[in-house]
Amino acid sequence: MIKAGWRGGTPIPPIPERCTSPRNPMKGWWIEMNIFTRQIAFIMILLAVPLGAWTFVFKPRNADIAAAQADIDIKLAQLEDLHAIEAINADLEQTLAELDSALEDLRARIPDAAAIENVLRRIAEMATENELVVRSFKRERAVPGAHYTEMPLATVIEGRFAGIHQFLHDLESMPRITRILNMSIEKPIRKSRSDMNLPRDHVKAQMTISIYADPSKEADV
After folding, report:
1. How are the residues of the chain apportioned to helix, strand and coil, as percentages rounded to the nearest 5?
2. Residue numbers in the chain where pLDDT is lower than 50
3. Would you say 158 and 136 are in contact if contact means Cβ atoms under 8 Å apart?
């Protein structure tokens, strides 16, 4: 404290000095607390800035990115499925084209009713070429189908076994579709002396030869 004095005959009151004495510790503690509080507040602000940025900026953006990625994955999966479907459709179209071609080939091998006579004539010629004797050549009742008519032909032929085998092979190689039903092969009964002169491999074959015809042209016969 500044001591009192006189100025121009007027007494000067003493001026108190700032209290820096250790006799007032509360004031220093309060100052230190204010500094510590400010430091803590500053640290909390530093921590709050990235946390707030994560909470309000990056986290929503990451959620948007994840949602966009999930949508992209779904679209890619759908695109792969679409490519697979397109490949299946391409294979299906190729398969249908092959089936159409096979059907056309099948129709070409099925004669119309007017051409049946030519098929029968060719079968008789094949029997003659293989030195066979046609004992019976009888048409049976036609069997209608959805896309074709089956015309059975009851046939009885005789000759050497090798000739009958070749006849069946030639019949299978015909361009027209035929099939053989109820075939049986047996040695004929030797009734006369001439029959005794037949070769030992002389046999008789009975069968039904089915010929397929186009029903749409059958009425033209």
Report:
1. 55, 25, 20
2. 1-2, 4, 19-21, 218-221
3. no
